């Protein structure tokens, strides 16, 4: 019999296991995938963490504070439901952590951060509305691998000491409930499978299993790999109709199964209509999981056109307001949009999410970053997508470029004259150091931050000037990613029943709990808060059991 059973061997589960083992608890960790997938989705991330008032920020001349971060978070979250009491309390707790012990605790177990702090999700409207007022996106050396590695090392040490047991290829299908208390788990043992990390694995059942435990912690992620579930929970009244086609930002095992099991057993879930999907998805030319999508993390300079060829208005600019842009794209009746840019922009501004797309950051070596980011051409990963990806069009002139765009989306033909007129008007704003075009102003504002000027934002230039070419168009797809709602938990990570009482013996952390409380982001995320939320909520659960 285990003291603690953790279902899900991702980042939140590993963080919970670390804390529970430190408290002398004997932990059994169960996962339907193999040992090769230890670390879960976090392994594939860029490794960004939302932290506040750090040495990295101060060295970059950024003045951040708990008060400013709180204003940004609450302006973005827009909490407006009675059930948001616990999510709001979790948000306040995370901000205390992010502005307090977070960095020191993670540094103690071996994490280090890239010195240039990223400015994600800039908002672009009012000071007390959505968005980060300052750069807060701290990229971990090693990217997602660098986030996962310290926790894996701790878990393997606990395993070697006999304090942690792994049960891989164990698919949980039920919770054992005795007298209203969760007392264990049941499920199926799956046949072994040595498929590479992230790839689909078999679901061949070799027999049943049952494990008894004092407490169970669910850390099994969201629903982004199951598009039918995403569409079923899609908030059409708020974002518009669910896309008919999407690409997957997560492996297919991210299917929400354990949330359904918990709800069937009597657990409460809230805010399941709140979700976070990206607008800048590419179809991976070298896929690992089914329908594998990769996100562009754009700088601010690409011209963003909707599917009808209309330049989108603020705050629907690259990197500013994800969900406002998602709603704007879907308002056209189509699922795609377009970036139009130059070679100079792609070289300076394009980055791709994912550890496998950023070997320089994974290397942890500054010399590799300088070579990759400041050398001739875009990064090798971006150039590979430009050369091999089906979403890219490259041409010497605009008319040829639009012909290529129309070949990709013949159901939504574009007018080259209309596109030329819009870009020419934008280009005319480059002649002076001042302008009325909001995007041109935003580009110059970005370059006022030396981190953006150094590595993320191209010098303002005319897109139609052949000297800056060739021209590049990128078809952008909706990319599924995160659930912002989930199992309702109190501040001790205890799962609640619909009447608000604790479901004895059951805890939850990470995305399955909306990263804490059943939705600590509210309606919008500020980025770096997904991995940070997994660590924070897993830490809380491990300290509570």
From TrEMBL:
Keywords assigned: Flavoprotein, Oxidoreductase
Origin superkingdom: Bacteria
Keyword Cell wall biogenesis/degradation: no
InterPro entries: FAD-dep_OxRdtase_2_FAD-bd, FAD/NAD-bd_sf, KsdD_DH, Succ_DH/fumarate_Rdtase_cat_sf
GO terms of molecular function: oxidoreductase activity, acting on the CH-CH group of donors
The keyword Hydrolase is assigned to this record: no
Domain FAD-dependent oxidoreductase 2 FAD-binding: 3-531
Stretches of the chain forming a coiled coil according to its record: none
Cofactor(s) it depends on: FAD
PANTHER family: 3-KETOSTEROID-DELTA-1-DEHYDROGENASE, KSDD-LIKE STEROID DEHYDROGENASE RV0785
Protein name: FAD-dependent oxidoreductase 2 FAD-binding domain-containing protein
Source species of the chain: Lutimaribacter pacificus
């Amino acid at each position: 019999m285990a003291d603690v059973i953790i279902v899900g061997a991702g980042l939140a589960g590993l963080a919970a296991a670390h804390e529970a083992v430190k408290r002398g608890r004997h932990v059994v960790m169960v996962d339907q995938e193999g040992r090769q997938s230890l670390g879960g989705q976090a392994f594939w991330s860029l490794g960004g963490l939302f932290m506040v008032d750090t040495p990295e920020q101060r060295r970059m001349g950024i003045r951040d504070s708990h008060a400013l971060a709180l204003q940004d978070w609450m302006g973005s979250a827009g909490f407006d439901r009675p059930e948001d009491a616990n999510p709001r309390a979790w948000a306040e707790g995370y901000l205390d952590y992010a502005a307090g012990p977070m960095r020191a605790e993670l540094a103690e177990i071996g994490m280090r951060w890239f010195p240039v702090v990223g400015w994600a999700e800039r908002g672009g409207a009012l000071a007390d509305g959505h968005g980060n007022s300052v750069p807060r996106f701290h990229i971990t050396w090693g990217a997602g691998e660098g986030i996962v590695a310290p926790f894996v090392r701790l878990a393997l040490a606990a395993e070697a000491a006999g304090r942690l047991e792994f049960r891989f290829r164990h698919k949980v299908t039920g919770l054992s409930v005795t007298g209203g208390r969760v007392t264990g788990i049941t499920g199926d043992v799956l046949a072994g499978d040595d498929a590479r990390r992230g790839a689909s694995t078999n679901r061949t059942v070799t027999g049943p299993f049952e494990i008894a435990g004092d407490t169970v912690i669910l850390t099994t992620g969201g629903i982004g790999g199951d598009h039918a579930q995403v569409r079923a929970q899609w908030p059409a009244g708020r974002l518009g109709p669910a896309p008919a086609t999407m690409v997957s930002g997560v492996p297919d095992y991210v299917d929400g199964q354990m949330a359904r099991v918990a709800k069937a057993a009597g657990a409460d879930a809230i805010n399941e209509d709140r979700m976070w999907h990206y607008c800048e998805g590419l179809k991976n030319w070298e896929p690992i999981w089914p329908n594998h999508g990769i996100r562009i993390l754009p700088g601010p300079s690409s011209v963003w056109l909707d599917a009808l060829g209309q330049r989108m208005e603020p705050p629907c600019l690259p990197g500013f307001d994800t969900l406002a842009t998602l709603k704007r794209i879907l308002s056209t009746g189509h699922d795609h949009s377009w970036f139009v840019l130059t070679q100079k922009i792609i070289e300076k501004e394009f980055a791709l999410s994912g550890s496998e797309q950023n070997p320089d950051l994974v290397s942890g070596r500054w010399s590799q970053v300088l070579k990759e980011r400041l050398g001739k051409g875009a990064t090798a990963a971006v150039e590979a997508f430009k050369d091999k990806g089906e979403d890219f069009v490259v041409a010497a002139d605009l008319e040829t470029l639009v012909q290529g765009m129309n070949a990709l989306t013949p159901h939504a033909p574009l007018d080259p004259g209309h596109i030329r007129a819009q870009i020419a008007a934008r280009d005319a704003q480059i002649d002076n150091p001042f302008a009325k075009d909001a995007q041109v102003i935003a580009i110059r504002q970005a370059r006022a931050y030396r981190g953006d000027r150094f590595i993320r934002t191209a010098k303002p230039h005319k897109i139609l000037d052949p000297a800056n070419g060739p021209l590049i168009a990128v078809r952008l797809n909706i990319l599924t990613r995160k659930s912002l709602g989930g199992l309702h938990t109190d501040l001790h990570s205890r799962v609640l029943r619909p009447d608000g009482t604790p479901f004895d013996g059951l805890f939850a952390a990470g995305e399955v709990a909306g990263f804490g409380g059943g939705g600590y982001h509210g309606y919008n995320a500020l980025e770096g808060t997904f991995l940070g939320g997994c660590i924070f909520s897993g830490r809380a659960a491990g300290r509570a059991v």
